[in-house]
Amino acid sequence: MLKLRLSICLASAIACCPSITAQPLRQLTDQRGILLGAAADPSHLTEAPYADTLAREFSQLEPENAMKFGPIHPGPSTYNFGPADALVSFARGHNMSVRGHTLVWHNQLPSWVTNGNYSTTQLSGILHDHINAVAGRYAGQVYAWDVINEAFNDNGTLRGTIWSDSPGIGLPGTAYMEQALRWAHEADPQALLFYNDYNAEPVNSKSDAIYKMAQDFLSRGVPLHGIGMQTHFSSRPGSLASIESNIKRITDLGLQVQFTELDVRLPVDSSGNATAADLATQAQVYHDIFALCLKFPLCTAIQTWGFTDKYSWIPGAFPGNGAALEFDRAYQPKPAYTSIQSALQTSPPVISAAALTSAASYANNAVSPGELVVLFGATFGPASLALSQPDASGKIPTQFSDTRLLFDDAPAPILYARVGQTAAVVPFSVAGHANTKVEYEYQGVRSNPVIVNVAPTQPGLFTLDSSGQGPGATLDASFRLNSQTNPAGTGDVILLYSTGGGVTMPASVDGEIPVVAPFPLVSARVTANIGGVDCPVQYSGGAFGLVAGVIQINVQLAPSIPFGQQPISVKIGDATSQSGVTVWVR
Ligand code: G3I
Fold first, then answer.
1. Is residue 260 in contact with ligand 1, taking CB distance under 6 Å?
2. What pLDDT, on a 0 to 100 scale, did the predictor assign at position 21?
C-alpha cells in the first residue's frame, strides 16, 4: 500500500490531475480495487475475439489447465512450461495479473505419479521438487497460487488422496497441506498462497473444516494468505447470508477471500441456449456475488471459470446445462455482464473507522479539526491516483475526481484520491464535537457511515519515511532538509511540519492555501522537546503555500541537547505527537 506522505500532501496543495475512464468490466473493477479474472486456455489466444475480450475485460487470468501437475510436469524430469508461459506472456503483454492453479490436487496427475507406487518419502520429494520447480519458475510473475485444491470432503472430513494418505507424503491430517504451503513460500516468498475449494462458500461442514484449518495454520505462522471459493453455482446458489457470514469469519482472520471459478450454469436446449427468464435469474446471481464481494475490502478478486459460453467445462460435466458465463458463444455480453456492471457501479463502498488515520502519524483513534487524514480501504474510487489542485477560489476542492469525504455531512477538502486510499482535511467545523459521522462517496454512491471520535488536537509530525517514523520532514532556516550532513546546532531554528493542531486564531478556512502572512496561529499551547530537552517554540501556525491544516512549528534548539539523531516531539494542547520521530543535532 502506497502511503503518500507530506511530499504528496504538500504537492497537492499546489499541483495537477488525471480523470476516470470508460466502462469495460476491467475498468469498473479497477475502480473497486479488486482484480477481475478469467480462467484461460492458451490454445484459444490465436482467436482474435477470445484474446481481445480477455485483454479488454479482465485484469487477471488463470491457466484453466496449463499449470496443473499433469499438463506441466508430464514426466519425472520433464516439464512442459510452453502453454503456461504463453499465458504468462499474454498477461504481461496486457498488464494483467496471473493467478496460479494448482500445485497440490488429486486430479489431473500424470500417470508417472499415480502409477509410480512411490513410498511416502519418495512422494514427498516429488511434491517438494514439483512445487519448487513450478512456483519457483513463475516467482514474480504469478502473484497468487492455489497451493492446495479440494482437500476436504463435503462432510468436512479430509479427502483421501495420493498426497494425504494414499499413501500420502508421510504427514498426518492437514500437515501435508502445511508442508506444501511452506514449500511454496520458500519457492516464492512474495506469492500469496491460497487454499481453494468448491461447495464451501456458505457456512457448512466443509467450510467449517477449512476455517478450523486456517485458524490453526495462522496460529502457528503457516504461510496461508487466503481462501479461494470456487463458486460453481446453479441459478439457485443457496443462502447469500450464509456465504456472507463465511466470508466475514475468514476475513476477520485477516485472510483474503477470492471467488476463483465463478460460473452459474443453466438448463439449455439442444443448441445450448438458455431461456430469457433463466438468463435474468443468472444475471441476478452474478450481481449478488459481485455486490457481496464488494462489501469486504479483503475480498480481493472475482474470477469466472472461462468467460465465453463457447469454452466452458459445464456442458461436459453437467449434461443439459451450459450458458454459465458472462459472454455468449459469439463473445457478446449477456444480461449477466450488464448486471455485473451495475453491481460494480452501484454497490456502496465500504469503509471502517479504524482505516481513517492521521496522514502524518497514522494514529487512528480520533480526528481533530483541520487534520490531514487518509482513509484506507474504501472499495470504490479512481482507478489511478488523482492529485487535486486549488479551484478557481484558490481553495482545495471538497469534491474531486468524483470523490467526497463527509464529516457530519460537511464535505472535506480532498487532497488526493484513489480506490483504497483517499486523503482529505477534516473540516474545522468538527471542533467541539465529541465525535463525527464520516461517510465516503464516489460517483455519488455513498458508503456506510462510521462514527469517529473528535479530539481538540492530535499532533502528528510528518516524516520523510512513509512509516510515520524516523527522520522528520524538518527544514533549517534556509529551508534545507535537516539530515546527518545538515544537522541543527544549539540556537538554530528548525521548521517542523505537522498536522492535527486543532483550531487556529484567526479561524482557518477549509481548503484555503495561505500565501500572505500573517498566517493563522495554532490556538492551543505548543511545546517541543528534543532529546529530552524542552525547546522554545517560536512559531506554530499556517505554512506558506500549504493547505490549512498543515502546521509549521519553528523550534529553537536549546543548549545541552545530546549530539546525533535525537527524538523530537511536540505537544499541542493536551496531546503529544507520535514517538519515533527524530532530528539530527550537532
Ligand atoms: O489435453 C488433453 C488432450 O490432449 C486430449 O486430447 C483431451 C481428450 O481427452 O483431453 C485433454 O485434457 C483435458 C483437459 O481438461 C484440457 O482440456 C482433460 O481430459 C479434461 O479432464 C480437463 O478438464 C478440466 C478439469 O478441470 C479436469 O478436472 C477442465 O478443463 C477444467 O475446467 C476443470 O477445472 C476444475 C478446476 O481445476 C478445479 N475446480 C473445478 C474445475 C471444474 O472441474
1. no
2. 60
